[in-house]
Amino acid sequence: MDISAILTRLGIDKNNPGTSTGSTVLSSDAASIASHSPVDGQLIAQVQATDTAGYETVMQQAVEAFAYWKNIPAPKRGDMVRQFGDALRLHKADLGALVSYEMGKSLQEGLGEVQEMIDICDFALGLSRQLYGLTMHSERPAHRMYEQWHPMGVVCIISAFNFPVAVWAWNTALAWVCGNVCVWKPSSKTTLCAVACQHIIAGVLKANELPEGISNLVTGNACGNLMNEDKRIPLISFTGSTRVGRMVSSTVAGRFGRSILELGGNNAIIISADADLEMSVIGAVFGAVGTAGQRCTSTRRLIIHESIYDSFTAKLVKAYGQIKIGNPLDQNNHMGPLIDQSAVQAYLHSIAQAKAQGGHFLVEGGQLDGPGYESGCYVKPCIAEVKNHFEIVQEETFAPILYVMKYSTITEAIAMQNDVPQGLSSAIMTLNLREAELFLSANGSDCGIANVNIGTSGAEIGGAFGGEKETGGGRESGSDAWKGYMRRQTNTINYSNTLPLAQGIKFDF
What we know:
Layout: H1 3-9, E1 19-20, E2 25-26, E3 32-36, E4 43-48, H2 52-69, H3 74-103, H4 107-127, E5 135-137, E6 143-151, E7 154-158, H5 166-177, E8 181-185, H6 191-207, E9 215-217, H7 221-229, E10 235-239, H8 242-254, E11 258-262, E12 267-271, H9 277-289, E13 299-305, H10 309-320, H11 341-356, E14 360-363, E15 366-367, E16 379-380, E17 382-385, E18 401-407, H12 410-418, E19 422-423, E20 425-429, H13 433-440, E21 449-452, E22 464-465, E23 468-469, E24 476-477, E25 486-494
Parallel strand pairs: 7-8, 7-10, 8-9, 10-11, 12-13, 12-20, 13-18, 17-18, 20-21
Antiparallel strand pairs: 1-2, 3-4, 5-6, 6-25, 14-17, 15-16, 19-23, 22-24
């Protein structure tokens, strides 16, 4: 893959990528951010970090753009998002390859992530004509009540490395059609993907003679702290760890701002005695190994009925023996690298902790070295027999470590599924209707996502995405998640010639 050619086609100068607010490239006194590929360890480029002065320039530009953008009719805002989707279609191959190379996920997943961006643009286009409010009957005669939704202002999006472009698009496409402008702080591990997206949207804005400040980009961790404390920002959407999410939530709430939090997951699949076992193996392996276990929806735990435990784990071990690990740009490989060597150390630490706490490994893990693994970021997917209460099992490790355990009754299995601090995604594999319906009931999964006969990873943009408990409670993407980017206003109109007062109070003048 000629990464230099890909960057050029995406409008990025490899020798001076900069940080752009639109078509404008900011100068900065802050240190640059080195982007290394976990695929081969090579330096791709240095991206200029945003300093305090640059951040202020971006925010002023965003505030000015909002004053204009909020008055553009929503369908016209939707048409701009449509054009962005069309531009993504033209750049899909290059942007998908860059996602794969900078993040380390397979080329198929990189292309799929760009397709998610295109899909959310299509969704947002339709939404731009459906920002509905309710009309309500008033208890007072000759009065009408209704509610409407208004844009909030400057929406800031702090995204994670594992989905370097799609999660930003989930947020920003909806925020745009709702009349907001956006400031994006991407992960410092995948800044080039963000710079590429900014170049693409800048071209759309310029072609439509729209203000650059509708879409803005800042880089570097210092900007995250500035955003959290900035009273000009009514809403921050944060995707990342529960630990950092707590700090974001506390700081933003302290100034009475809003936050959409998409935090950790500790996702389980219940494998019923009535499951289709062949289908269940496929769902479990993809959920645990896809993206090298670096999805927030990755399968971390398998809760397997005791009557099929031995036969199912045998199938699982056999399937793991066929997994091909290597360069994710080679479509013959099933799993690529972890994002960096810090992630490898976290993976090795979790394995050691699982063993120390009593876990038994059915498939051993470890770091890979030798030809093809020079980056030091490649590891083996592994399977450990554990108890659900083990401290390490209660945590989320962003790596391909799968924990397996037994259950005897469906109520016990559901209790085990729920008995972790996180509540993002969950699934049950069963052909038993009663089990499936119980799992989806109020007495079932406590997660924001609950699936039957599909795995935990992956989500369609048409449904609201997010989870409960330490996952943060945020919702993004489809359904009515758009309401999170707007402020609700209740209106009452009196068209009578009298003024009835609340609680029947009367003033005689």
